[in-house]
Amino acid sequence: MKVSREVKVALLVLLGIALFLYLFTFLKGKNIFSDNNTYYTQFDYNALSPSSPVTIKGNKIGKVEDISYDYQTGKTIVEFSVNPKLKFSKNSIARLYPTGLMGGNALSIVDANDGDLAKPGDYIQSEVKQGLMSSLESSLPKVTSGLDGTLESTDTLVNNLNALLQDDSEKGLKNAIAELNTTLKSFASTSYSVQGMIKNNEEKISSILDNFDKTSKDLNALTTELKDAGLSNTIGELNKTISSLQNLLATIDNGEGTLGKLMKDEALYDNLEAASKELQLLLLDIKLHPARYRRILSKKEIPYEEPTEEQINNN
């Protein structure tokens, strides 16, 4: 079968157009024959470029395919593709980070690892990692303001030192150095005196330390003996006894028991007082009239005579 010249020309034109489209998309960072999965994210501004790398844990796994501006939200929409072997969560973060000091940025996938896998076409949350130069740029005004204050303080200090070095009065640097030397000599003399006193009383100091050591040992032995003697148990029993005594006093104060009733029952007290008086009169009558009680078995009854006040007072 013979192919005509027109067909050959048409095929060459189609091949040329296809090659042109492929080269054009390739130069833009796209590969029409790629089977990578495509995802989206968005930022407040654009710091990327097509074909910027997409990494995970420092390993390149894809690239930025397209960047567009959303006129409704004012966001920069970033389309990126990754190797289909990569499985990550849709709750992961697409982090924009600088790749060097002189510029250049890339995307990094920070996987959430929660099992909820992302699907092609999903939007991934984004964040921006501040670079070193941006950090220095934001901190530079504070640093320069602090440096200005430090330079002013240094300048003031240097001027004061110059004035001090040029001062020949009694308050000058020479006088201060002389007073410092005198103070150091006095301190040295004092230290020598202390050393001499320690050296002269070395035996006494050693004896004091020995006595202190013996005293500490005796005190330790005493505490051991008290511990072995059961001092804690004795104190515990004493506490129990005191508690029992307190309970007894509380019972008496509340009028409970025999002692409590004697302390609180006035009628019982009056009865005891009356009985005591009658017993006193009986004893007095026995003393005054003993014959009456010697003849207690006889039929003759001796009438009772109440003693007079004089007899009661005399007895």
- Please tally the β strands and state the result: 7
Q: What is the name of the CATH class of the largest domain?
A: Mainly Beta
Could you report the average pLDDT, rounded to the nearest whole number?
78
CATH hierarchy: architecture of the largest domain: Beta Barrel
Shape: elongated
CATH topology of the largest domain, anyone? Elongation Factor Tu (Ef-tu), domain 3
Main sheet strand line-up: 1-4-3-2-6-5-7
Regions with little confidence, pLDDT below 50 for 5+ residues: none
What is the first-to-last residue Cα distance?
A: 174 Å
Domains, number? 4
Order of helices and strands: HEEEEEEEHHHHHHHH
Question: What fraction of residues sit in β-strands?
Answer: 5-15%
Given the structure, what is the number of helices?
9
Helical content band: 55-70%
The largest sheet, given as strand count, sense and whether it forms a barrel, is: 7 strands, mixed
Radius of gyration: 57 Å
Characterization of the model:
- By secondary structure, this protein is of the alpha/beta class.
- Helix content is 57%, strand content 14%.
- It is built from nine helices and seven strands.
- It has helices at 5-27, 132-166, 173-200, 202-228, 231-253, 257-264, 266-288, 290-294, 309-314; strands spanning 37-43, 53-56, 59-69, 76-82, 93-98, 105-110, 125-128.
- The protein has a seven-stranded mixed sheet with strand order 1-4-3-2-6-5-7, with no helix packed on it.
- It is elongated.
- It starts with a helix and ends with a helix.
- The mean pLDDT is 78.
